[in-house]
Each structure stands twice: as C-alpha cells, then as structure tokens.
TrEMBL record:
Pfam short name (any one): DUF4142
Organism: Nonomuraea aridisoli
InterPro entries: DUF4142, Ferritin-like
The protein's name in its UniProt record: DUF4142 domain-containing protein
Gene3D superfamilies: 1.20.1260.10
Domain annotation DUF4142: ranges: 49-179
Biased composition (Pro residues): 193-203
Chain spans, region Disordered: 190-214
Length: 214
C-alpha cells in the first residue's frame, strides 16, 4: 500500500513539473510597462515622453503662429505687434524642425491645436486693443512656462540623440519667447504657477573649534 502511494505521489510530482515547464514556455515573460513603450531607432531608444515632446511642440506652433498673425491687426501696443511677428516667424522655423525630426523618428504629429489652445485662439480672435495685448502676453507666457518644463524634463533624461539635439534647440526657442513676452511689460507674474517646493535641506553639521577643547 505504501509503495503504491509513493508511486502515485511520484507520478503526480512529475506531472506538476511537466505542467510548470509547459506554462513557462507558453506564457510570455513579464514586460516592464515603460520599456514596452520604447521604440528602437538608429539614434537610440525613443520613449513615450520623447514622442509627447514632439507632439506638444507641434501643437504649440499650431496656435501660436495664428495668434502671432492676429497681433498685426488686433494689437494696440507696437511692442506686442513686434513680439507677435517674432513668435510667428520663429515658430515657423521650429515647426519645420519638429516635422523633420518626427519624420526621421517615425512619430505621427497632430494637425490641430489641443482644445485649450483652440479656446485661447477663439478668445484672442474676438479681442482687440488693450484687452488683446494683455491676454496675448499672459496666455502665451503661461503656455510657454508649461512647455518649458516638458522640454527641460525630456532633455534631462532622454536616451535618444535626435531628441537631445531637438530639445536643446527647443529650450532656446522657449526661453527667447518668454523674454519677448515679458518685454511687453504686460505679463502678470503673480498669476504664473509657483515653482515646486524644494525638498528640505539636510542638517548642517556644526564645525567644532578644536582649540577650545585643547
């Protein structure tokens, strides 16, 4: 009886081992969700954040180029007219670069601004004079501040050489545009988002004067 029981247990153990091997062969290995979104390219891995950067820069141009054109006829301030022309011209340059990099990396780009940007365009299209000047300066300055954090974050960690070059160039455009908008004197800095609260600094060890203890 005992010999029969041992034989049955041995056969059961063999069956379980075989089943485990079969499951291991059939089931795919666990995949890191972040790595699953990476695409290999000749210039290095392309991540979801890299693709999102190209999309966001493209959409920024799709609304800032038209509102730069609006400034020609709707602005009262000569400086706002000049800033609108500069932003429109430079976004045309940046948009060309964005499309070139996206084509090289196989990233599909949108052909229209996002819903918030479309709403801002409609708001500015309905304004003129001082109201246009004020909202033009503040809406574009706030938008540039948001895209700046995206560009900087991608530049700090991207694994892709093409995105490194693109994001470095993008940072230069965004910083120039923030300076242009602030040069109008109309940006209300109190309405901009505050920088994130820094982490607490580690305690500083007090220096000991050895002469006092000798």
């Amino acid at each position: 009886m005992h010999r029969l029981l041992r034989g049955e247990l041995f056969m059961l153990g063999g069956f379980l081992a075989a089943a485990a091997v079969t499951i291991a062969l059939v089931m795919p290995p666990a995949i890191d969700p972040a790595a699953a979104q990476w695409t290999q390219t000749p210039s290095g891995p392309l991540t979801a954040a890299d693709r999102d950067l190209l999309i966001k820069v493209r959409q920024a141009g799709l609304w800032e180029m038209p509102v730069g054109e609006y400034a020609k006829t709707r602005a009262e301030s000569q400086r706002v007219k000049e800033v609108g022309a500069l932003i429109m011209k430079e976004h045309m340059e940046l948009d060309l670069l964005t499309r070139q990099v996206a084509k090289k990396l196989g990233v599909a780009l949108p052909d229209e601004p996002n819903p918030d940007q479309q709403r801002w365009m409609a708001q500015l299209a309905a304004q003129s004079g001082p109201a246009f000047d004020r909202d033009f300066a503040n809406l574009l300055r706030a938008a540039h501040g948001k895209v700046f954090t995206t560009v900087a974050a991608v530049r700090s960690g991207t694994r892709n050489a093409e995105i490194r070059k693109f994001s470095a160039e993008g940072i230069n455009y965004v910083m120039r545009h923030m300076a242009y908008l602030e040069s109008t004197g109309l940006v209300d800095h109190t309405q901009l988002p505050e920088p994130p609260t820094p982490s607490p600094a580690p305690p500083v060890a007090m220096a000991v004067d050895k002469r006092r203890h000798s």
